[in-house]
Amino acid sequence: MKKYGVWIIVFVCLVFLPLLKLEGYYYRTLCGILLWVGLASAWNITSGFTGYIDFGAVGYFGIGNYATALLMTKAGIPFFAALVISGLISTFIAVFIGRYTMKLRGVYFGIATLAFAEAVKQIVLEFDRTFKVTVFEGSHGITLPIAHDEAFFYYTFLVVVAGIVLTAFMIDRNKFGYALKAIKEAEGSAELAGINTGRYKVSAYALTAFLIGILGGINAYWLTYISPLDVFSVIHTIHMIIMALFGGIGTVFGPVIGAFVLSIANEVIGAKFLYTYLLMLGVILLLVVIFLPQGFIGLLSLRRFKK
Amino acid sequence: MALFIQALVTGLLMGGVYAAYSSGFSLIFGVMNIVNIFHGELIMIGAFTTYWLYSLYGIDPFLTLPISMLTVAVLGYIIQRVLINRVVEAPPMISYLCTFGVHLILANLALLLWSADFRTVTTSYSGVGFSIGPITIPIARLVTFIIAILTTFGIYWFLEKARYGKAIRAASQDKEMARLVGIDIKKVYALTFALGAAITGLAGGLISTYFVIYPQMGLPYTIIAFCVVVLGGMGYIPGALIGGLLLGVIQALTATYLNSGLSVAITFILLFIVLVLKPQGIVGKGIVE
Predict the structure, then answer these.
(1) What is the nearest CA distance from A235 to chain B, expressed in angstroms?
(2) Partner residue facing B112 (CB), from A111, A123, A276
(3) B123 lies in a domain?
(4) CATH number at residue B111
(5) Which of A52, A96, A106, B33 has an alpha carbon 20 to 30 Å from A129's alpha carbon atom?
(6) Number of domain units in chain B
(7) How does residue A203 score in pLDDT terms, banded at 50, 70 and 90?
(8) What chain A residue is nearest to B265 in terms of C-alpha separation?
(9) ipTM of the assembly?
C-alpha cells in the first residue's frame, strides 16, 4: 500500500483544496484537468488493457452530453438521475456497437469506431433538419440551466474521476483485468485457455462507454452549452489517446499523469497558440511511439530497474 | 427522371474524384499494411502546390500537376525513409499512431504557414460545363474522372507487368522471400510510398480547381479515403475505383432525395456495415488481417 501512498495524499489534498478559497479560473482549470484524467483513464480501460485502440470514444462522450442535456431540459429529470440514465444509455449503445466492432482486429477496429463516432455526430447534427422535428436542435446546440457554484462541479468531477481511477486500479489486479491483458498479449491463446474473449472485450468496452458517458453528462451541465461539433469533435479522442500514450498506456496511473501534464500544457500553450500546441502534440506522439512505447511510467520503472 | 440521371452523373463524377485521391491510400496499405492518416495532408499539399504556382506565377493549374506530383512524391519518400521505415515492422497500431503524429504536424505546420483561410483556384474555365439535354457535366470533374480511371489502370498495369511493380507485389506478399531473392525491401517501400504520394498529389492539384482548399482539409479526405477503400477492398487497387464510384452515387442520391448533411452520416453507416459484415470489401478481394 506504501507504493500508492502518494496517490492517496494527492486525493486528500484535492478534497481539501477548496478551503484555499480559489478564484473561478482555478476551479475551471482544475475541473478541466479532472475531466481529462477521467476520460484518459476510462479510455485506457478498453484500449490500454486489451490493446484495441478505440478511435471513437468521443461518441460516448457526446452521447452522454446530449442524453443529460435532453433529459434535463426536455424531460425535467434532476441532474444526478439524468447522469445515471446517460451512463446507461451509453452502455446500452456500446453493448450493441461493441458486439460487432470488437470482432474486428487492429486498424479495422480503429476505423469502425471512428466511423461510429462520426456517424452519431452527423445524425445529431442533421436529424432535426431531415425529419422536420425539434429534438437535438442541430448545429444550434442546447443550452442547459445555469446552476450551482464552482465547488459543486469540482466535487462531482472529483468523486467520479476518483471512482474511475479506482475502477482501473481494481481491474488492473483482478481476474477481469488479467483476462483483458491476456487478450492484448495473445487473443488466440486466451481463447484456448478458456477465456470468453468476446464477452470480456464487450464488457470492457461497455464499461468505458458508461464512464465516458457519465463524464459527458457532467460536462454538459458544467459548460451549460453544448453543440455537436464541440462535444463530438474527433480531437477529443486524439487527446485521450495521446494522454494515455504519453503517460503510459495499459497502466493505471500512466493516463492520470499524461492527462495532468498535457491538460496543463493545453491550458498554458493551447489557449494562446492552438496550432503550435497541436504541432507539439504531433511531435510528442511521434517521439513516444518511436522511442518510448511504454510512456512516461515506463521511463520511471526503467530508472528503478537500473538502480 | 432527369433529376435522377443528373444525380447519377454527379455521383459518378464525384466518385471519380474519390477514386483519384483514394488509390494511393490503398496502394500504401496493400504493400506496407499501413493505414496512412496523413493521406489527407498529402492531398492538401498537392492542392496548395498548384494553388501557389497559379496565384504567384500564373501557371495554368493543369500544367502545375507534374510539379504537385513531384513535390508530394518527394515529401512522401522522405517521410517514409526517415519515419515510417522505423515502424513498418511494428504492430499496425504503432504505425497508425505514427502517421497520426505526422498528420498533426503537417496540418498545423500548414496552418501556421498559410493561415486557416479558405482558398480557391479560379481560372477562366472554372465552373464551365457542357450539357447533354437536361444533364450538366462540369469539365474539370470530367477530366478528374478520366484521370482517375487512367491512374487506376496505370497502377494496375505497373504492378502486374513492370519490373519494379513485380518487386512491390513480391514485397507485399512475402517480405522474407522477397528479401531472399535480392529485393531491397526498404527501397521498395520508399518507392511505393513515393508512387502512392505522387498520385495523391496529382489528385490534390485537380481538387484545387473546383473545391475550396485550406490547411485543415486533410482529415475529412482521409476519412472518405478510408470509406472508399474499405468499400472496394483494402489494398485491392481497382477497389478504389469501384468503392469511389459506389460512394459517389450513394451520396448524390441521398443529397438529392434526403439532405446533403445526411449523406455524410449514410457514408459512415455504410462503412460501418461493410467493415462488420464484409471487411474484405464488396468485391471480396481486399486484404483482411
Answers:
(1) 10
(2) A276
(3) no
(4) 1.10.3470
(5) A96
(6) 1
(7) very high
(8) A119
(9) 0.76
